Amino acid sequence: MDPISLIDLHDVGKSFRAADGTQRHVLEHVDFTLKEGEIVALLGKSGSGKSTLLRIMAGLVNADQGTVTYRGQPVYGPASGIAMVFQSFALFPWLTAQQNVELGLEAQGVAPAERARRADAVLDLMGLGGFGGALPRELSGGMRQRVGIARALVMNPDVLLMDEAFSALDVLTGETLRDDMLELWEESRISTKGILIVSHNIEEAVMMADRIIVFSSDPGRIRSQVMVGLPRPRDVDSAPVRALIDEVYALMTMRPAHDVPTPLQQGLGYRFPQTEVERMEGVLDVLAEAPFNGRADLPKLAEEAEISDDDLLPACEALGLFGLARIDRGDIFLTPLGQRYVLAEQAQKQAIFGRQLLAHVPLAAHIRHSLEQEPTGALPEKDFLDSLEEFLKPDEAERVLKIAVEWGRYGEIYGYDYHTGLLTLPAPDPV
Predict the structure, then answer these.
(1) 63 and 180 part of one domain
(2) DSSP-derived 3-state class of residue 396
């Protein structure tokens, strides 16, 4: 017999209205099923709509198109069998741990004695016995997240939705809490029948999930799916686990044909990867040194550079954009230009960066050309924001322009005055 479906999404779409009145499609044509007895991890770039999708499943946000059902019934609002855990803990600071856990039960009208009994039991389950009277400020980050999870579990949910639930914690604390959750799941000590985890951490997804969904962006769509098929507990250093981690990295760094931007989108609508020059150069430096010597497996590079997937993948995308590195099937390689860049003096690095920026980032070239055409050599940033907002919502346009400004200043192809908001041609070198 096939496992029972808990949540079903069919052709789900969601749009939000931008400040200028235009519609931005966040999700499009999403088909997804969460079945009893499975843990599913959802991976994707920041802004790909993963959190919005979770909120639609939880009944906190309505889909604009398609259908959402929980155990065959349409979801039009919060469902009593679905609970959610947030990245930010979201505890009321003036309430004790026990009072925070009891909140949902109180809202349901559960009697005080029964609330206390159930809250005590779930706090014990989460390793917080004896801490029920503590205020959130008296608890560590890991303990506060345990309270957040206890608050969800005390409702005996069928489905647990976890939105970056471990990402605000240090690595060791996050791994410990993850392992404890898996132990509760494997030993059936919680009532939950299915778990959906939104994460940026590829290793976490492989260690926890039975199935991994990779999301594309703009709008968010399911791009690929990986069946894990390994028994738990899993050894992170075992060959099968490392192979799966490599496979998921390759999927995360692959750009499908339908995601390749048109020349016009590349010009003004390309959403630059969220990364800084210092991060890019740090990755290059680690890649160039032993033991990699110019070629690395991305998971191993992340470990050696002590960088999260959420920071590494945008940096690698930017390095590829600048022609300093090449990514293929989850591996990254220094290009000949990248090798010269690593060995160059600072002034030479900035010159290379500026040349590549003009050659490969049309927005930067557009800014430079516009400044050269302007008799004063200066233009307000609003002129470029207005152009960007034809393709992007205002906050995204601001983000893209901010990155273009920082990259352009580093490459010395234009300057920026933070007091006046003017972009300017760089001052000529003294003779």
Answers:
(1) yes
(2) helix
What is the 3-state composition of the chain as percent helix, strand, coil, each rounded to the nearest 5? 45, 20, 35
Q: Is the pLDDT of residue 160 over 60?
A: yes
Q: How far apart are the first and last CA of the chain?
A: 82
Contact 330, 247 (CB under 8 A): yes
Domain ranges, residue 30: 5-253
Under a CB-based contact definition with an 8 Å cutoff, are residues 208 and 39 in contact? yes
Report d(CA 27, CA 51) in Å as an integer: 11
Residue pLDDT, tens place only, 169-214: 777 777 888 888 888 888 888 889 999 999 888 888 999 999 999 9
- Using the structure block, give the residue that is written with the tokens 């499009």: 28
Grouping H, G, I as helix, E, B as strand and the rest as coil, residue 35 is strand
Q: Are residues 285 and 190 in the same domain?
A: no
CATH of the domain at 42: 3.40.50.300
SS3 (DSSP) at 80: coil
Cβ(225)–Cβ(32) below 8 Å: no
Alpha carbons 232 and 183: distance in angstroms, whole number: 9
Residue of 249, 312, 301, 250 lying closest to 276 (CA atoms): 312
Give the pLDDT confidence of 66-104 residue by residue, as tens digits. 999 999 899 888 888 898 888 776 788 899 999 999 988
- Examine the domain organization and report whether 202 and 65 are in the same domain: yes
* 338 and 207 within one domain: no
Residue at which a domain ends, from 253, 287, 320: 253
**Residue 292: its H or E element:** none
